[in-house]
Amino acid sequence: MNQLICSKCQAVYPLNEPIWRCRHCGSILDLQFTPVIDIVKIKHRRPTLWRYREAIPIELDENIVTFDEGFTSLLEVRFGGRPVWIKQDHLFPTGSYKDRGATVLISKMKELGIQHCVEDSSGNAGCAVAAYCAQAGIGCDIYVPDDTAPAKLAQIQLYGAGLKRIPGSREDTAAAVQLAAENQYYASHSWNPFFFQGTKTFAYEVCEQLGWQAPDTVILPVGNGTLLLGAQIGFAELHQAGIISKEPRLVAVQSEACAPLAQAWFQNLPEIPSIQKKDTMAEGIAIASPIRGHQIVEAVRCSSGEFITVSDGDIKASLVRLGKQGHYIEPTSAATTAGVEKYLAAHPREEMVVSVFTGSGLKATEKILSLWH
Ligand SMILES: *Cc1c(COP(=O)(O)O)cnc(C)c1O
Ligand SMILES: [Zn+2]
Predict the structure, then answer these.
(1) Residue 122 pLDDT
(2) Which of 42, 121, 153, 346 is 20–30 Å from 8 (CA)?
(3) How far is residue 373's CA from residue 65's CA, in Å, rounded to a whole number?
(4) Ligand 2 centre and the CA of 24: distance in Å?
(5) What is the pLDDT of residue 339?
(6) Closest CA to ligand 1's atom 2
(7) pLDDT tens-digit readout, 52-70
(8) Residue 19 CA: which ligand is closest?
(9) Which residues contact 288 (CB under 8 A, 6 or more apart)?
C-alpha cells in the first residue's frame, strides 16, 4: 500500500493529500512505498537520478521537474593513504546534494497542483527549492537566518524566489516559516517525506556504481539528517528487493558545537537533549533540535553504526588538506570529511568506506578567505 503514515498516531493519508504533517496530531509523516527496481532496464538509461524512475513515487512523467541531476561520480580520494569513495555531490546544479530532494519534492508539488510554497534553510536547501520551483513555475518564499552566506542569498534571489531574512537564530527562522506554513504548502526538507524519496537515490547510485553491492560503511553528515535518513531508506529498499545482500553501517558526523544527537547517543539518553549551540564553521549542520532526531539515532543504531563529533579545528584542517588535493568544498562539507579522518584513525580494519562532498566551496567564499586572516 502506497501512502503517507503518521510516525506517532499511525494515521494514514493517500499520497495525493497536500499535507506536510499529520492533521490529527501534528507529527512528522513517513511515506510507505514499494519501489520497482529493474537493474537491466536501469543500466541502459541516461546518467541522472531519474534512471530509478519506478522507485520514485511520482505518478506522471510530465510532472517531473529536473535539470538532469544526479548520478554524480564516486571518486576515490585518499585520506592519509587510505582510499575512500566520495560521492561528488557538491557538483549538483545548485551546488549541493539538496537537489536530490528538491527534484522529487517539487515534482510532487507540481503533481499536486501547488502554486506557491514556503521553505526555510541555512541556505542550500533554499537554493535547491528555489531553482526547481523556478523551473516548475511555482512561487516560493525562502526563509533564511540573517547571517546566511552572501553567495546563497544571491543564488536564491537570482532564481526569483522571495527572500525572507530572519534576525536571530536558525530556530527563529524555523518558527517564522511555520507561521507562514499555516496557510501555505511547506516544502520543508526536514518535514516533507517526499524530499527523502529524492535523497534516497544516494544509496541507489552508490550501490549501482559498486556493481550493485553495498559498501561496508557510509559516513554522512547529520543536522536534520536529510541525506542520512534518505540513504537509509534507499539501502533498506535495495536490501528488501534482494539486490544487495546487506545494509552498510551508517556513521553520523556532527559538529561538536551543535551535537544533540551525538550527545543522546554517547550518553544513552531516551530523549534528544536540548542544547546550547555554539558558533561553528559547519553552520549547515548546526541544528539544535532536529525534528527527525529519534529516527536518525534509530537508523544509526539499526545499522550497527556510530556517531562521531568533530571540532572546528578538525573541520578547518580537513578543508585545507582537501583543498591541497584539488577539492573545493564548503566548510560544512569538511565536517564530514573530518569525520572520515577520525573514523579511519579509529578503525584500521580494511573495508570499503563511502562518504560524500555535500556542498561546493563556491558557496562560502568569505568563510574560506577568512582562513588566511
Ligand atoms: C544540508 C547539508 C548537509 C546536511 O544537513 P542535514 O541537516 O543533515 O540535512 C551537509 N552539508 C551541506 C553542505 C548541506 O547543505
Ligand atoms: Zn498523527
Answers:
(1) 83
(2) 121
(3) 42
(4) 5
(5) 98
(6) 284
(7) 999 999 999 999 999 999 9
(8) 2
(9) 169, 170, 171, 258, 260, 274, 275, 277
List, for the chain, all residue ranges whose pLDDT scores fall below the cut of 50. Answer: none
Q: How far is CA 96 from CA 88, 89, 284, in A?
A: 9, 6, 11
Would the CB of 295 count as within 6 Å of ligand 1? Answer: no
- The response to whether residue 287 sits with its C-beta less than 6 Å from ligand 1 reads yes
How far is ligand 2, taken at its centre, from the CA of residue 185, in Å? 18
Q: Is 0.85 topped by the overall pTM?
A: yes
How many angstroms separate the alpha carbon of residue 29 from the centre of ligand 2? 8
Domain boundaries, the chain: 1-32, 74-97+196-372, 98-193
User: What pLDDT score does 209 carry?
Assistant: 98
Residue with cell 540573517: 146
Q: Is 121 in the pocket of ligand 1 (CB under 6 A)?
A: no
Q: List beta partners, residue 30.
A: 5
57 lines ligand 1 (CB under 6 A): no
CA dist., res. 79 & res. 219, Å (int): 13
User: Does the CB atom of residue 238 touch ligand 1 within 6 A?
Assistant: no
Burial of 373 (0-12, 13-18, 19+ CB in 10 A): exposed
Which residue lies with its CA nearest to atom 15 of ligand 1?
Answer: 124
Integer Cα distance of 54 and 312 in angstroms: 42
Q: How wide is the angle at C-alpha 295 spanned by C-alphas 269 and 130, nearest 5°?
A: 130
CB of 69 within 6 A of ligand 1: the answer is no
Nearest CA to ligand 1 atom 9: 226
Kindly identify the ligand whose nearest atom is closest to the C-alpha of 258.
Answer: 1
The CATH code belonging to domain 98-193 is 3.40.50.1100
The whole-angstrom separation of Cα 152 and Cα 328 is 16
What grid cell was written down for 47? 546518467
Level-2 CATH architecture, domain 74-97+196-372:
3-Layer(aba) Sandwich (3.40)
Nearest Cα to 353, choosing from 177, 157, 206?
206
Residues 6 or more apart whose CB falls under 8 angstroms from that of 254 comprise 221, 222, 223, 260, 261, 262, 285, 307, 308, 309, 310, 335
